[in-house]
Design a protein that fits this description.
GO molecular function, one term: ATP binding
Organism: Kribbella sancticallisti
Helix content: 25-40%
Radius of gyration: 20 Å
InterPro entries: AAA+_ATPase (IPR003593), ABC_AA/LPS_Transport (IPR051120), ABC_transporter-like_ATP-bd (IPR003439), BCA_ABC_TP_C (IPR032823), P-loop_NTPase (IPR027417)
Protein name: ABC transporter ATP-binding protein
Strand order of the largest sheet: 6-7-8-3-9-10
Strand content: 15-25%
Order of helices and strands: EEEHEEHEHHHHEHEHEEHH
Structural class: alpha/beta
Keywords: ATP-binding, Nucleotide-binding, Transport
CATH superfamily of the largest domain: P-loop containing nucleotide triphosphate hydrolases
Number of helices: 10
Length: 284
Amino acid sequence: MTDPSLIPPEPPGQEPSLTPPEPPGQVLAFDDVLLEFSGVTALNGVSFTVDAGELFAIIGPNGAGKTSVFNVLSGVYRPQRGSVRFGDQNLLGLRPHAIARLGIARTFQNIELFSNLTVLDNLMLGRHHHHPYGVLAAFGWLGKARRNELANRRAVEEIVDFLELAQWRRMPVGLLPYGVQKRVELGRALASEPKLLLLDEPVAGMNLEETEDMARFILDIRDELGLPMVMVEHDMGLVMDLADRIMVVDFGRPIRTGKPQEVATDPDVVRAYLGEEHRIVERA
């Protein structure tokens, strides 16, 4: 791997960017989706939209269909009814790699990294859509291949700084604390320069300090990069603190969509989660 000290600086006025600016308006429309498996209904009439720069959260009890929404969005499942549009593009029928090329990136509840590779190598894997040259050019590392490789490494170094990964940048991922590994996975998704980011339980298994760090980075992604996100998460305090809007699903059906406080006090949401005697409260 090329030493970062050998990477030439950007020309004046051409600072690298983690993600292209998102135009205003609606980014995603998920409309009346029905998904069934051998008579078992995973999603039934699920509809929602995501606007530019919005952090939209999906919550619900275990088995409610939250991950099924992500699998439809990323092309793993194809629903029997409904439509899914990303900007002007219909996503239904597209393979996962084609959807990724359109600008949708995803993290996973269970860490999906190459544990024997370094942080930098794992982040570089997120740049695979940004290598417009063949194998021979890569071996020669000349001309277009060299310029493109250096540009990709600059983009990765920017992510290292953004997510405060510098002290681990050359360490194998498998040796890092769990919370840092989750941060690396987030960085790999950002490395693809997505237009929409799907976060599947980004703080699952984390302690309080790791959760607070991840929450800070998620807010930075929304506020500094303007990147729209869809987040599935069980940590109710985190969701109430971070989300602009929330959709609650139960047994594959949406039961409420609205702002955090509206959702938290909805009787149907309280009943689905905790029963009649409890209320979902925001973190102090």
